[in-house]
Amino acid sequence: MKSTELAPTGTLAAEDLGTVHLIGIGGVGMSGLARLLLTRGIPVTGSELRDWPSLAGLRALGGTIHTAHVAGNLDGVDTVVYSTAIPADHVELATARERGLRVLHRSEALAAAMTGRRTIAVAGTHGKTTTTSMITLILQQAGEDPSFVIGGEISEVGSNAHHGTGDLFVAEADESDRSFLLYRPFVSIITNIDADHLNTYGDLAGLAAGFAEFARLTDPAGFVVTCADDPATRQLTEALRDEGRTVHTYGESADADLRLTEIAFDAHGVRYQASLDGVSLGEIALPVPGRHLGLNSAAAVLTALRLGLPLAAAVAALGAFPGVRRRFERKGSVAGVTVYDEYAYHPTSMTAALSTMQEVAGAGRLVVVFQPYRVYRTRDLQFELAEALAIADEVIVMEVFGPGELREPGEGGVSLTAAVPLPPDRKVFVPSWEDVAAEVLRRANPGDIVVTMGAPPISLLGDELLAALAVDAG
Questions:
Q1: 3-state per-residue secondary structure call for 31-82
Q2: Could you give the angle at which helices 291-306 and 347-361 cross, rounded to 10 degrees?
């Protein structure tokens, strides 16, 4: 247990890890892994500087949470797990290597947890978390008990991970650092391929090649699911089929295996007619708004049907879909102002989310508080980010959240704010977290929607805004 040699993917099981310590255990990805390990009876410790909402649940499951990053946290530990956000000189990571402990990237530890299960791995630039959640709920509705690790908590269920008794394991597959290439899925889903993580891949062609490599890791007995509407995934589908691989497609395109037509959406949800291989499946409806959620649900339905699960289970699960936390999550309403939280930070997903929120706002105005995520993305996609933000009526931009990155002069929130094509009085850069609430109070009126959007830390801001609104109203 004290070796630094990593077992090949698929041969190391979770039970081989001993006591596991997770650096930055409060993050959504790490907390999901911790929950999964704890429910399998594996001792877990972790360190975190922020009091993330997930930590109380981990403590209740028996996890030990340290509120500082120090070498002593590793006493009695066998395996240390880190994420890409942790720098190589982090005290705990460096100490683990000095002591000869087993050191695993989060994805390596997750791959160990998948051993012995048929994995459904959900990849794509956008829609991974929602699609993963939908598939999980459909499997549960069908009487399966899948294991799952999701990059967000399913609303009302209140969990982002579970150790199930069934043979299926549903997980997001993160392309950002190529770690999705560690998995050997039975089913691979690729929702779309859009320009992102170019610091890793160089250009869109390099990113597409990474997704192709991921798809080719799929078990020959399984299958790949792709979106027929996305140009890059269409091209990938053709290449895979030419190689004799099984690929099933979904979308509005006429040649999609599962086709969506008559799509309708409003503030109360989205619905559409579906057909599979030319045979009508009837209407599929979701009680959460957003046209893009129709495509996410189609990927989930197609996967379930190709696995042999009943259509009725998919329709019932999606008809009661509660949404995912940090995906158009309603935090509350005070004095006529409603506060939402939304994870979107890429221009494409921001455009979809903000367009939906404008529909929901109706006669009210949309005020967005945006925390950019990663310096390289904010720099490389500044024009696209600015255009997406301009969908809102009022824009408050915070400083970029980019752990481990260096920001050059002129980069970051100031530059992004200046690029937003709105009048100067409708946009502002607020670098200090403590000053955001006052700015929101100044701009928001009864009937308006305020949405906190972007990097993970901003998820903590919604409750502060509601409290400030209550004080102001009282």
A1: HHHHHHHHHCCCCEEEECCCCCCHHHHHHHCCCEEECCCCHHHHCCCCEEEE
A2: 120
Q: Exposed (0-12), middle (13-18) or buried (19+): which is 463, by Cβ within 10 Å?
A: middle
**Single-letter code of the amino acid located at 306:** R
| Unique residue bearing structure tokens 């089913």 | 187
Q: What is the pLDDT of residues 38-71, one digit of tens each?
A: 988 999 999 998 777 778 889 999 999 999 999 9
Q: Confirm if 389 and 368 have CB atoms less than 8 A apart.
A: yes
pLDDT in tens, 245-295: 999 999 999 999 999 999 988 777 889 999 999 999 999 999 887 788 899
Eight-class DSSP state of 424: G
Q: How far apart are alpha carbons 166 and 444 in whole angstroms?
A: 48
For 190, residues 6+ apart whose C-beta sits below 8 A from its C-beta are 123, 124, 211, 214, 215, 224, 225, 226, 227, 233, 236
3-state secondary structure of 394: strand
Q: Can you give the pLDDT at residue 346?
A: 83
Specify the DSSP element, H or E, that contains 360: helix 347-361
Residues 417-431, buried b or exposed e (16+ Cβ, 10 A)? bebbebeeeebbbbe
pTM over 0.85: no
Residues that are catalytic: 128-129, 172
| Strands annotated E in 308-425 | 329-334, 337-342, 366-371, 394-397
DSSP strand pairing (159-162 vs 147-154) = antiparallel
CB atoms within 10 A of CB 134: 29
pLDDT at 155: 42
> Angle 79-85-88 (CA atoms, 0-180°, nearest 5)?
65
Bridge partners, 224 (sequence order): 188, 247
Calculate the CA 259 to chain-centre distance. Answer: 25
Euclidean distance between CA atoms 166 and 195, whole angstroms:
36
Judged by DSSP in three states, 95 sits in: helix
- What are the structural domains, with CATH classification, of the chain? 14-106 (3.40.50.720), 116-319 (3.40.1190.10), 329-473 (3.90.190.20)
Residues in the chain, pLDDT under 50: 1-10, 154-158
Q: Per DSSP, which regions of 336-410 are E strands? A: 337-342, 366-371, 394-397
